[in-house]
Design a protein that fits this description.
Aspartate Aminotransferase, domain 2; single chain; one-carbon metabolism; 422 residues; protein homodimerization activity; Aspartate Aminotransferase, domain 1; 17 strands; 2 domains; transferase
Length: 422
């Protein structure tokens, strides 16, 4: 059992780190990974991230660098840009942001001044920290107004979004988030943004792979600016992109460099290009639709076992489960599930009476298990394992947790992962 590609040089030079890498590869193989923001990248993406491109500094953009020796770097970045534009159908793409949070911050820097008003989804209702939440720089430096979901449906309250936009006249409106199980209504957000002359930023970090694969509507043509990470459902390396129309392209580029960062991480840019090339293939569309089919099947199976799903289900890869009726908090449930071989995260739910570090919910996603080959027919068994582990946690039955972990390890032997040979 070993990491792939193999790491003989690392093992010889630093056996302690090599051992931890091997242990992590084994852990990723042995667990059902349901963290909605995680996935498995291909061997090709893994190899691209470990190349000599990491040695090169490349401040600026292709053809306009501040360092010499860019003969190979410029074509790498240009390939990533052209592939992103072709895949998503946008006028412009910037592939340099280090991660999703800096990509969102670039939108602020490009189109708003400190102290001006922005409108984003509240974190407890499914938004992201960088959409103006109070503990984020975006909430400290800007006048952040927040919208939420309807209590009776768990879905975005677009009437509230419109009312807040009309009242506060924000410079930016963010749609998208980190725990939204339903389809994002980009046309409705665009109509509101046009009415108040705001720039609409669609944060599609979680659903980018679904958009690319045709399993979720695209914000292109509705949002002037689109931010996304390149991992999660898009199944690339840990990085980010900003897509935009031609009118907003120059401001986006200036905000990323020199506004927020120096040289891009060229090894990551190459891996993004590889992942975008993979996403352009027909089989990626099949994978994207399979993610949604798996999520719907898992939602149905959990509902049948008495679990309360926020909004009643899912349209995408993500499920948000309120455990209040199971008489256990999200944190102890997530910890017990981890011991049982099921990896997910505890999460606040809308109108949660509990504290964020000990909330009522758990968040699940089906990207990684879909990459691994699990299908809808497997989801009732996954739901059974989840239920057994949570029930055991509520009654402190460690033996049941250990049994579930053993069953999962045996089951997963038939579903290999990129990056590890069992």
């Amino acid at each position: 059992m070993t990491h792939q590609p193999a790491l003989p040089t690392l093992a010889a030079a630093d056996p302690e780190i090599a051992g931890l890498v091997e242990d992590e590869a084994r852990r990723q193989h042995d667990k059902i990974r349901l963290i909605a923001s995680e996935n498995y990248v291909s061997r090709a993406v893994l190899e691209a991230t470990g190349t000599v491109l990491t040695n090169k500094y490349s401040e600026g953009y292709a053809g306009k660098r501040y360092y010499e020796g860019q003969q190979n770097i410029d074509p790498v970045e240009t390939l990533a840009i052209e592939r992103a534009k072709a895949l998503f159908g946008t006028d412009h793409a910037n592939v340099q942001p280090y991660s999703g949070s800096p990509a969102n911050l670039a939108a602020y820097l490009a189109f708003a001044k400190p102290g001006e008003t922005v409108l984003g989804m509240a974190l407890p209702d499914g938004g992201h920290l960088t959409h103006g939440w109070s503990v984020s720089a975006t909430g400290k430096w800007f006048n952040a107004v927040r919208y939420g979901v309807r209590k009776e449906t768990g879905r975005v309250d677009l009437d509230q979004v419109r009312d807040l936009a009309r009242e506060h006249r924000p410079k930016l409106i963010f749609c998208g988030g980190t725990a939204i199980p339903r389809t994002i209504d980009f046309p409705a957000f665009a109509e509101i943004a046009r009415e108040v002359d705001a720039v609409l930023v669609a944060d599609i970090a979680h659903i980018a792979g679904l958009v690319a694969g045709g399993a979720h509507p695209s914000p292109v043509g509705h949002a002037q600016v689109i931010t996304t990470t390149t991992h999660k459902t898009l199944r690339g390396p840990r990085g980010a992109m900003i897509l935009s129309d031609a009118e907003h392209a120059k401001a986006v580029d200036k905000a990323v460099f020199p506004g927020l960062q120096g040289g891009p991480h060229n090894h990551t840019t190459a891996a993004i290009a590889v992942a975008l090339g993979e996403a352009a293939k027909p089989e990626f569309g099949e994978y994207a639709h399979q993610i949604v089919a798996n999520a719907k099947a898992l939602a149905e199976a959990l509902t049948e076992r008495g679990y309360d799903l926020v909004s009643g289900g899912t349209d995408n890869h993500l499920l948000l489960v309120d455990l209040t009726n199971k008489e256990i908090g999200g944190k102890p449930a997530a910890q017990a599930l981890d011991r049982a071989g099921i990896e997910l995260n505890y999460n606040t739910v809308p109108f949660d009476p509990r504290k964020p570090f000990d909330p009522s919910g758990i968040r699940l996603g089906t990207g990684a298990i879909t990459t691994r080959g699990l299908r809808p027919e497997h989801q009732p068994k996954v739901a059974e394992w989840i239920d057994r582990a949570i029930t055991a946690a509520a009654t402190d039955e460690q033996s049941t947790v250990d049994t579930v972990a053993a069953e999962i390890r045996e089951f997963l032997g038939a579903y290999p992962i990129p990056g590890y040979t069992a």
